[in-house]
Amino acid sequence: MKVTATIVFVYGLLIILGGIIGYVKGGSHFSVISGSLFGIALLVCAYLISKKHLVAQYVALGLTFLLDGIFTYRFAKTLSFFPAGFLSLISLAILIVIALKIRRTLKLS
Fold first, then answer.
1. Any residues with CB less than 8 A from the CB of 91 and at least 6 apart, and which?
2. What is the pTM of this model?
3. How many Cβ atoms sit within 10 Å of the Cβ of residue 50?
């Protein structure tokens, strides 16, 4: 659980940082608000995952899936690898890690 919690925690920080950078570089209020909300939600999920709450893994999976969809859409629209394509790939990797962790957890029970 600690590895998954750490990965989700770092991902949450990355999302918050991305929102702040979006605001500083482009003046996007939407970026800082959505980045903060999603990032804080992921940080809470990371904490709960570290406390062995299975529901938090599902919530983190859902949030990551939603963020991956948003980033993939933005990448397809702009064809600019950074930041949308990069964050889409990172989100996909996080999505796979969380899904495998849930699968492993369910196999053990």
1. 11, 64, 67, 68, 71
2. 0.93
3. 16
